[in-house]
Amino acid sequence: MPAKDTQQLENELSEADNVKTFLDANAENFRQFTLADYLRNLLDEKNLIKAQVIRNSQLDEGYAQHIFGGRKNPSRNKVLSLALAMELSPKETDYLLYYAKQNKLYARNERDAVIAFALETHKTVLQANELLTDLKLEPLLGD
Length: 143
Prior knowledge:
Layout: H1 6-15, H2 19-25, H3 35-45, H4 50-57, H5 61-68, H6 76-85, H7 90-99, H8 110-120, H9 125-134
Helix pairs in contact: 4-6, 6-7, 8-9
């Protein structure tokens, strides 16, 4: 049986009479990835080269290697830099933020809206930083 998407799970949960029954029926649909697991999956799924992603992220190479190895809990800005470097969509970025235990992008937040725009338009980290700086918003780099 193919995995259910989030919307299907949300619909079933809203219609469930018993949460235990819902959990039991959908056990295989709950992902228990770590951030490092999810990053590895993204590299495989998108045929990306880790070294190139790290270069494109503008993160310190050693620090980024620790993120990919599961030895660092990165800040939200560092996760967003990786998302831009991997050319993720805003939705994929929200999943990445989830696994990093960070808040998802919020369209009512001006800075988050600019970052979502940068993701949608495939901006680099440096281009996103320029855009944020031009709009007098906190850049991704330098935290």
